[in-house]
Amino acid sequence: MPLGWLVAVRGLLCLAALLVIGVLVWQGVTAKGAPDPLEPTMSPTSATVSIAVLVFREGLECILVLAAIMASMVGDSRAHRRPVAVGAGVGLLATVVTWFVAAGIMSSLMENVSALNLQAATGLVAVVVLLVIMNWFFHNVYWGGWITMHNRRKKALLRDAGQSAITSRHLLFGLGLLGFASFYREGFEIVLFLQTYRLKMGDGIVLGGVLIGALLSAIAAVLTFVAHRKLPYRKMLVLTGVMLGAVLLVIVGEQAQEMQLAGWISTTPIPVLKPFLPAWTGMWFAVFPTVETLLAQAMAATIVIGSYFWARKSNRSEPPDTAEAPFHSPNSHAPSAQS
Questions:
Q1: Which residues of 155-193 are buried (b: 16+ CB within 10 A; e: fewer)?
Q2: Does residue 22 belong to any structural domain of this protein?
Q3: Chain-centre distance of CA 264, in angstroms?
Q4: Which residues contact 46 (CB under 8 A, 6 or more apart)?
Q5: 228-247 pLDDT tens trace
Q6: If you average pLDDT over residues 299-313, what whole number do you get?
Q7: Residue 146's domain spans which residues?
Q8: Confidence band, pLDDT 50/70/90 cuts, at residue 311
Q9: What's the domain count of the chain?
Q10: Residue 71 in contact with residue 336, Cβ under 8 Å?
């Protein structure tokens, strides 16, 4: 990248960071009093950012898996990329259909269940989804195993096709199924996670966050599959993983608050903390001066951090051949260690 463009990009990033800091300072100066744990206070901006981070992070994982599948499809086997891409496209359509089905189910449940109880229930689902994603993120065994499973399936299909064990139609169907599974698994997680946001914030906020995350994912996909750029997937996933950890703490705080509003758990104020927690801390970070919300966030942080160190310890004791699969462009001719 030319020096001028690099300076311009860094300047824009600094301006964006200053804008975010300015908004937070403005919220802190103008907000009065301590956050009320019995009032829902999630900021639309905070919700949009959380949704965008999750969608982008899941999009990166999908791109990574598809890149690993297509990495060895060069030369005469380049035509095999098309059914994989078609399968991923079908996965996108299936994700959209799943969204409308899930939204319809939630709407029908609201006729018989109170809104607070339904928000608390869907919030629990969102927390579970995020904990599962964070648990997988910190385990190299997951990355290697997930990619290896797809590559083994791909190799088996191509081997059987070469030995005339399966027909060309079955080969195309199998490769399409690989693409479908790679995309739809991520899409299904996103659909489950977004239901609680839809109930609390409405379709507009959800759509905005999804569009931002999808745009970032599309840029990464174009650079990977069209421009054949070797992106720093590891650094990008680490960055989005850290951001997702912050999102998890916010969601856990909001979920504990929803459970308090629904009467599922008690509310135990901590008066000594109220002077140190202005209203904007509850609006932006879901930090409330109550025992239940802070304890829930502490437990979530302990699970994530503990999972990270447990994964590091487990990976050190594993043999070298089970290490994490390398990240490379699908245009690379170097075979993957997992393929």
A1: eebbeebeeeebeeeebbebbbbbbbbbbbbbbbbbbbb
A2: no
A3: 28
A4: 250, 283, 284, 285
A5: 777 777 777 777 777 878 88
A6: 79
A7: 34-320
A8: low
A9: 1
A10: yes
Q: Tell whether 126 is covered by a domain.
A: yes
* 290 phi and psi angles, rounded to 5 deg: -130, 150
How many Cβ atoms from other residues are within 10 Å of residue 41's Cβ?
18
Q: Which residue has the higher pLDDT, 287 or 17?
A: 287
* Tokens 């507009």 sit on residue: 204
- Give the model's pLDDT for residue 8: 66
The C-alpha atoms of residue 243 and residue 239 are separated, in whole angstroms, by 6
Query: Is residue 136 included in any domain, yes or no?
Result: yes
Reported as half-sphere exposure (CB side, CA atoms, 13 A), residue 60 has a value of 23
Handedness of CA 118, 123, 128, 133 (dihedral sign): positive
Inter-residue contact 103 to 118 (CB < 8 Å): no
What share of residues in the chain are helix, strand, coil (percent, to 5)? 80, 0, 20
Higher pLDDT, 88 or 312: 88
pLDDT of 140-149, one tens digit each? 545 555 566 6
Task: Answer whether residue 40 is part of any domain.
Answer: yes
